[in-house]
Here is the input.
Amino acid sequence: MKKIFFLILLVVLPISAFGADPSEDRPCWSFEAKGGSFAPALPEWRQYYGKRSMPEYAVSLAYKFLRQVEIGVEGGASTAKGSGYELIHSQNAGQPVYGGNVTYTIYPVNVFVLFRGIVNENQWLVPYVGGGFTRMYYEEKIEGQGTTHGRTDGYNYRGGLQLLLDGMDRDAANNLYLDYGVYHTYFFVEAEKTHAVEKSSSADLGGTAYLMGLLFEF
Here is the structure.
């Protein structure tokens, strides 16, 4: 695995010096806004909600201890509407029970450490991996029966690839730095796996997310 990682670093070294480079200072913070799809690990999900996944949106803020290492916090939300079954809590030995129309929402909060494979401020492609702690808040609104809500803890891990956008419009990149202190802007794609088991039902409220978004370093 280490050999593969270092090989990726060699491949993604910058081809040319595109991008805003207004000073020798380096960014200390990262802010991400992203969205995509989240496929729950609940085994009966598709049968009762009609789709394999639901939309997910999230934002994160991280502090860079080193240029390549940062720790951050992320908050997200996903909502789906299904017909008829409550999948988390059950009165029948863990089997889903009929409950009318259901609106299911989760709010994952992640604390993570991230390692970015960056060796040069003008590097076009930057791979990254990370993981950490997850607290999953959930809510099920069941038509005619009220709302069930709670929380559970687990873990997350992720990996992705980011593309430097500064060189596409150098003037805009320089203005972002001068006006807002933004050193770099990236587009990124990411896969994230979450595992969070609700203790009373043994239901895994985690799943797999495929996301894309914008990253701002300042």
